[in-house]
Every structure is written in C-alpha cells, then in structure tokens.
Amino acid sequence: MYLRSLGVYLPKGRMDAEEIARRSGLPPEVVREKLGLLEKPVPGPEDHPAEMAAWAAKEALAKAGLPGEAVDWVVSIVEEHKDYPVWATAPYLALKVGASRAKGLDLNQKCASLIGALEVARGLFATRKEVGVVLVAGGYRNGDLVDYQDPHTRFLYDLAAGGAAAVLTREGPGLKLLGLAHRMDPGLALAVKVPVGGTRAPLTPENLSRYRLRVEDPEGMKRRLDATSIPSFLAVIREALEEAGYTEADLDSLALLHMKRSAHRAVLAGLGLSEERSIYLERFGHLGQLDPLLSLRLAWEKGLLKEGSLVALAAAGVGYFYGAAVLRLEGGLNA
User: What is the DSSP string of 167-196?
Assistant: First the structure.
C-alpha cells in the first residue's frame, strides 16, 4: 500500500501568540516557548470540518491524477465536532469528490485517527482484491471548544482548524507503508471530554456555557501522562519500525503531531534524531489527526524527503490512543 498524494486546506485566518496570551492571561513568551505556538489557523464562516476535508480530498485526487470515480473506499476521519451533530461524513465526502461507486466508513480515534485509518486501509487492500484506491480525508476545528480561561486545558490552546487528505493506492509510486503500531490507555478514558450535550447531561440553556472541552481530573491526568506519554510515543514508533524491519537508527524523518516544545524534543531525543529531522508545527498549532499529513507536506516542500527516505508518523488522541506508521519513499510523492 502506497500513500500516493496529499491534499491540505488551511483557513486564511490566524490567531497569534499575543492573542492567545491576551485571552488566557499567559505571558506571550510562555505561549511561544513553552506551548510552542507562534500562530495557528482559525476558521472562517465557511470553514466547516467536512467541507475542509472535501476541499483537501479534491486536491489530493487531482495531484494523484485520479478522478473521483476511481475511489473504491472513502475513510472519513472528520472530527466528531463537525458541520452537523449525529451525522456520518464519508457519504458526504464521496458526494463532493464524485466518488459515486465508493463504499465508505467514518473512523474516530480522536487525534490518532489517521493511524487507525491506515490500518483499516491496509486491511482493505489485503482482503479485497478489487480495491485499488482508498481516500482518507479529515477536517478539524476543535479550537471552537477551547476555554482560554481554563488553566487545566492549557495543553489545548493550540487547537486549530484545517483539512487534509491522502490518496492510498495498491501500487506506487509514493510512500510505501511498511509498519504500523497501536496502543491504548483505558485508564484515561474519561480524562478529556465535553461534559454536556450527550445523553448523560443533555444540552440545556442553563448548561450551554459548559459546552467546552474539560479535564475531569487534572492532577491525575498530569501524573499519568508524565509517566506514560513519551514512553508510549517511543514504544509505538519502535514497534512500527520493528514490523518494517528497521530500527530508529534508520529513520530519516519524523512527522509528529504538535505538542509542547519540550515534549517534541523529548521524543526526538529518545529516537536519537536531531531537530532538523522533524518539522515543529509552531506556525500551525494542532490540527488533530491531520498533523502528520501536514507535517509530511511541509517535509516534502522543504526537501527533507528523498528517494528511499524512511519516515515515521506518530500521533496520540485523548481517550487515550497512541499510534505510529513507518513508510519509505519510492518514486516520489504528489504533495
């Protein structure tokens, strides 16, 4: 299975570190240096998650030189906070790109959804000989749900907006998938969520202001993540490398989701990689599950990916999910 092409859509609007500092009360230098955020894209009035995913998907298909009719499966990783509640998006994406004969599904592992989508796609190619093209696309704007006055959700101040997509094909050229790895930490199942608006606490006029992302047990979550987060990232990357037949010494590049600057450096150090081997998304913030695709696009544009380059993608999603993929560039990338 090859990742043949990429599409990325970013809204024109931006929120800079000074604005985040003004809203949160943090010093601007803390936003820039500790949170690792210089600016982030924010949505305009038409920038809805499924719509942004569709725009990115059209770009990815065009770069692959494929019409919508060539798509066999659409795997949507559009975020749960989207255009309409209680709504599946794979059919809408198929409609927008003209994939009239495609089958599809929606997949949600929060910010690790891309890695889960790669696993599903690999299974489709392995078990269904008729599948030749899988379109993976997502849109994200969870920045809508950030309360900048809540210090317990400071790690969410980087949440941004955008869309990204990848065309996966049975044959190359592109980034050949060599290994995947996944982990889950059920102990953090309830750690981060919007506490109202579901069946346990239906939305009412009185609790509307609580429709924001919250942390249930801030101290408990911090203790657990301090002990497990970096080791879990390193573990899934190493497991994916092992499946691919490589070690971290063979890695040329790492596409990592946005996290605080010290954590990004810790993952690189754990793999023995210099900071030049990974793009830090300080001008983009966190686009959820789309970060690795954006990072791949930027790495390709900067010339960090050469023929034969071995690249790892790594992500984590609240819940808690961790995932990694290892790919090798064979014959170029339409990014």
Answer: EEESS-SEEEEEEEEEEE-GGGTTSEE--S
DSSP secondary structure letters along 295-327: HHHHHHHTT---TT-EEEEEEEETTTEEEEEEE
Among candidate residues 143, 53, 135, the one with its CA nearest the CA of residue 102: 135
pTM: 0.97
Q: Tell me how far apart the alpha carbons of residues 260 and 269 are, in angstroms, rounded to a whole number.
A: 14
Give first-to-last CA distance, the chain, whole Å.
Answer: 17
Amino acid 103: pLDDT: 98
What is the distance between the alpha carbons of residues 153 and 27, in angstroms, rounded to a whole number? 16
Q: Where are the alpha helices (DSSP H) in the chain?
A: 17-24, 28-29, 49-64, 90-97, 113-127, 218-244, 261-271, 291-301
Task: Using alpha carbons, list the distances in angstroms from residue 88 to 107, 281, 293.
Answer: 10, 29, 22
Tokens, residue 311? 């690249």
DSSP tag of 13: E
- Rounded to whole angstroms, the Cα distance separating 89 from 95 reads 10
Domains and CATH numbers, the chain: 2-172 (3.40.47.10), 177-330 (3.40.47.10)
Sign, CA torsion 25/29/34/36: positive
| pLDDT band with cut points at 50, 70 and 90 for residue 50 | very high
Written as six digits, the tokens of 299 are: 């790495």
Instruction: List the one residue out of 253, 230, 139, 127 whose CA is nearest residue 183.
Output: 230
Q: How far from chain centre, in Å, is Cα 313?
A: 10
List the structure tokens of 20: 């985040």
For 231-279, what is each residue's pLDDT tens digit?
999 999 999 999 999 999 999 999 999 999 999 999 999 999 999 999 9
For every residue of 235-264, DSSP letters joined together read HHHHHHHHHHT--GGG--EEEE----HHHH
Residues 97/136, Cβ–Cβ less than 8 Å? no
pLDDT band at 282 (very low <50, low <70, confident <90, very high): very high
